[in-house]
Write a structure and sequence with these properties.
261 residues; mainly alpha; two-stranded antiparallel sheet; 12 helices; 2 strands; 71% helix; ABC2_TM; cell membrane; membrane; transmembrane helix; transmembrane
């Protein structure tokens, strides 16, 4: 499959993304509010636990609430994009079975549909930062870089997971468990500096940490992505490998999808 041919399917792709978002949220009584109910409730509970229970004040000199939320919105998109993207082929099995269709589009549809919520969450974070006195500066200009990095990473994992899900029906449960492990294994809720020096390399090996810390560098710690070339190369190496693996899996197995589904 020539992936440049995806542009021929652009109108179909846009329509699928819009219909997927409407079907997930706008068909319910509360509509799109459901897209934010779970994340907001999670944030509220965590802020209460850490601020009231553990009396967390600041992390590396910044307010705990904006530090926490800036990491959580990244994780929310990763979790939602991978979980929904992994189910893309099975959910849209009618497209796979009944017509000639570029099945590689399906995980892209899911990951893009989830992006709507992430963009709104990011806007809400920016509003909170402005309310707390954080003003836009030159470091915010690199936000598109981290948007793209986050999107491509989630897509790369979703492509691999969506193919596996076709052949291993229980894989969705495995992904949910991995997402729970990933949340606690990534410095989203805790500061990486808490780890002893001999274990710091484990944080560096986690590509999600690159994204979480990237958002925090943009909004809070004022650092440039090109100041850490080794971390960037590692992240993009892992992401490219996952993306190539996903493309290879589609190429090798897509002709079997209709028979298995």
């Amino acid at each position: 499959m020539n992936y440049l041919g995806i542009f021929r399917y652009l109108p179909i792709f846009v329509n699928l993304v819009q219909s997927d978002f409407r079907r997930r949220y706008l068909g319910t009584y509360l509509g799109a509010l459901w897209a934010f109910a779970a994340p907001l409730s999670t944030i509220a509970v965590l802020l209460f636990v850490f601020n009231v229970g553990f009396r967390s004040g600041q992390v590396s000199g910044v307010e705990f609430d904006v530090w926490l939320i800036s990491g959580l919105i990244v994780w929310f998109y990763i979790s939602d994009g991978i979980i929904s993207g992994s189910n893309a082929i099975t959910e849209y099995s009618f497209l796979v079975k009944k017509m000639q269709f570029m099945t590689e589009l399906l995980p892209i549809v899911k990951v893009t549909s989830s992006l709507y919520v992430h963009l709104i969450n990011s806007a809400l974070l920016i509003a909170l930062l402005l309310y707390k006195g954080h003003r836009p500066d030159i470091y915010w200009l690199q936000l598109p870089y981290y948007f793209i990095s986050l999107y491509v990473f989630v897509l790369s994992v979703a492509m691999v997971a969506s193919v596996i899900q076709v052949f291993i029906k229980d894989f969705q449960g495995v992904i949910s468990i991995l997402m729970q492990i990933g949340l606690w294994g990534t410095p989203v809720l805790w500061d990486a500096k808490m780890l002893p020096a001999k274990y710091q390399f484990l944080v560096t090996l986690n590509p999600v940490n690159y994204l979480v810390q990237g958002y925090r560098e943009v909004f809070l710690f004022k650092g440039w992505f090109f100041e850490h070339p080794a971390k960037a190369l590692y992240f993009w190496g892992v992401t490219a490998a996952m993306l190539l693996l996903g493309m290879l899996l589609f190429k090798k197995t897509k002709h079997e999808f209709a028979d298995v589904l």
